[in-house]
Amino acid sequence: MTFPHRHLIDIAEYSRDDIMLMLETAASFKEVNERRIKQVPTLKGATIVNMFNEPSTRTRSSFEIAEKRLSANSLNFGGSSTSTVKGESLSDTVETLCAYKIDMIIVRDKHAGVPRKIADLSGVHVIDAGDGKHQHPTQALLDLYSIWEEKGSFEGLNVGIVGDIAHSRVCGSLLPALKIMGANTVAIAPPTLLPARPDVLGADEVSSDLDAVLPDLDVVYMLRVQRERLEGAPFPSLREYNLLYGLTQKRDALMKPDAIVCHPGPINRGVELDSFMADHPERSVILDQVYAGILVRMAALYLLLGGSNDGIDAQ
Hints:
Elements: H1 16-28, H2 30-33, E1 47-52, H3 58-69, E2 73-77, H4 90-98, E3 104-109, H5 114-122, E4 125-131, H6 137-151, E5 158-162, H7 169-181, E6 184-188, E7 205-207, H8 210-213, E8 219-222, H9 238-245, H10 249-252, E9 260-262, H11 275-278, H12 286-304
Parallel strand pairs: 1-2, 1-3, 3-4, 5-6, 5-8, 6-7, 8-9
């Protein structure tokens, strides 16, 4: 089977069938990750560059683990360790990397559009690991995987995305992905944390009243307040934000009995979530999302690089 995509940059380029194949492939890697020796030779000989020009813990570490478990060779660099600090252009950096005969670049950058530019310049496979306020497609896929594992289907599911929507690249990928899969979506935020034109989000509904919509939601997806991206925008105090938009123990009573809680991390405890909800044994799937990140990123590498089935179904 040949996967119909060279890159994973914009989730809107993927069909429902493409996304389901990604999720099903991710599920097939669960068994590999539960072995004593968690490694298969699927991508042996492939060379992957992790270009992280912006800080990351979960995304970077899960990509690195995924690469190792598929036996790929990887080169990790970014930030102050790159020659861009010395004034080298992005195009020159990319051309230098490609001279090493690499197969893929995974890029995270504070500027929107950089992954697309690298794809155009390099000719190798590119995965967007987060670009500015634009997209974060593997995060959306791992979120979908976690929801799919809990709910079994997306059709007719009511999903609320709550918080700093204006600055969220997670939302930029998750909202269109949910729509592709047939879910109903509502964006919930104070007006100052919504885009100037909320209709551009593509959500079925936009609300500034969390308590009004919470009882209808099957999935409550809480976003981190990105204070580093607020850029002087009007913002209530953190205490006021928590009172109006924080998912707290008090609000637990408003939720459906089987509603689940997601968060992309890192959590600002006491702001968007209190510890009762973040650690809720029945509702919270936050740690499941972390594990899903490895599975989904293994699936993305495998499908985009055309990996063999060697060792996946064995044992």
